[in-house]
Design a protein that fits this description.
Layout (H helix, E strand, L loop, with lengths): L2 H12 L8 H7 L4 E10 L2 E13 L2 E4 L11 E2 L8 H16 L7 E5 L8 H5 L3 E10 L4 H6 L3 H13 E5 L4 H14 L8 H14 L2 E8 L5 E9 L3 E9 L8 H15 L4 E4 L5 H8 L4 E10 L5
Parallel strand pairs: 3-5, 10-11
Antiparallel strand pairs: 1-2, 2-3, 2-4, 5-12, 6-11, 6-12, 7-8, 8-9, 9-10
Length: about 300
């Protein structure tokens, strides 16, 4: 383990970072690339901010881009005191971004999706970075009654119908079957996720070993045929959809609605505070995610194609 990776492991251990920022996650998804991290600031010899990144090659040229299966990246810094004046907080963020992004290697193209809640990209605007606003749906489950009441009426009908038609299985042993269904769904949209299956297997092993994943499979009650699957990642505070899929023969099934509802019930039962419908920018599934009552939430995608980096 390199010195920067060891320092980052300590940084992650001391702070409740989201799963996408954990060093073991970055190591797992870097099967076709590499990752590293920059640091800023010290308090008692420990960094106060970090910027992990994933580097790979595209058309033979070095790029920094979102890692496979990784919705969010970008900077992460420790919460500042609530009593701190806003101008001091902004000054800290400005200096942190300048120093962190100044440590990035020279690449042909750069892109990172910041996590929701990180909005101050002004210092990078001054450095000629560009920004696109993207959206996800976030849901904060309170209780099952409120969850059910927040559903669109047609979704409730679909869930009831699916409950009669399929049974829900849960367990890591369903991940391979589920991924095959995900591959079918992605293929219908023109995406080949088969090339990422080995990367998923490594990530699944790490998530399962740490208790941070749940795979749900909807199976036909009559013949046991898999209809739909969903893979959920979660820690004590957040849960997010890694992927979901419908079998080609059941692409109009309501099983996907039931799986999402069961995933939300699972999150509520564990006391998870935020459920992230990752993938909400896809117009083919946005309407479904919206119908579950989440809040449309912006997040920023920073990019730069200048060779002068």
């Amino acid at each position: 383990m390199s010195a920067s990776h060891q320092l980052y492991a300590d940084f992650c251990h001391r702070h409740a970072l989201p799963l996408h920022f954990q060093g073991w996650w970055l190591e797992a998804v870097s099967q076709n690339g590499s990752w590293d991290v920059a640091f800023f600031g010290e308090a008692q010899g420990r960094p106060q901010a970090a910027l992990p990144w994933y580097e790979t090659r595209r058309f033979g040229l070095k790029t920094i881009r979102p890692a496979p299966f990784t919705a969010y990246g970008g900077p992460i810094w420790l919460p500042q005191p609530a009593t701190q004046r806003p101008d001091r907080r902004y000054a800290f963020e400005q200096k942190a971004l300048e120093k962190l992004y100044g440590q990035l290697p020279r690449v042909w193209h750069f892109r990172q999706h910041w996590q929701p809640g990180y909005y101050n990209w002004l210092p990078l605007y001054w450095k000629k970075y560009k920004q696109e606003t993207r959206y996800t749906y976030l849901l904060n489950p309170q209780n099952e009654a409120a969850l059910w009441a927040g559903l669109k009426n047609t979704v409730r009908t679909d869930i009831r119908k699916a409950q009669e038609q399929v049974e829900i299985l849960s367990g890591p042993e369903h991940a391979e079957t589920g991924y095959a269904l995900y591959r079918q769904s992605a293929g219908r949209k023109g995406f080949d996720v088969g090339r990422l299956q080995d990367t998923f297997r490594v990530l699944h092993t790490e998530l399962n070993r740490r208790g941070h994943s749940t795979c749900l499979l909807a199976r036909d009650r009559r013949n046991g045929e898999p209809q739909a699957a969903l893979y959920l990642t979660h820690d004590a505070q957040r849960a997010g959809l890694l992927w979901s899929g419908l079998a080609e023969a059941h692409r109009h099934s309501c099983a996907g609605h039931l799986l999402l509802f069961e995933a939300l019930r699972f999150a509520f039962a564990r006391g998870i505070q935020t459920f992230d419908f990752e993938g909400s920018m896809d117009p083919g599934i946005e309407h479904l995610y919206r119908s579950f009552g989440g809040a449309l939430t912006p997040y920023f995608s920073l990019y730069d194609s200048r060779f002068s980096k």
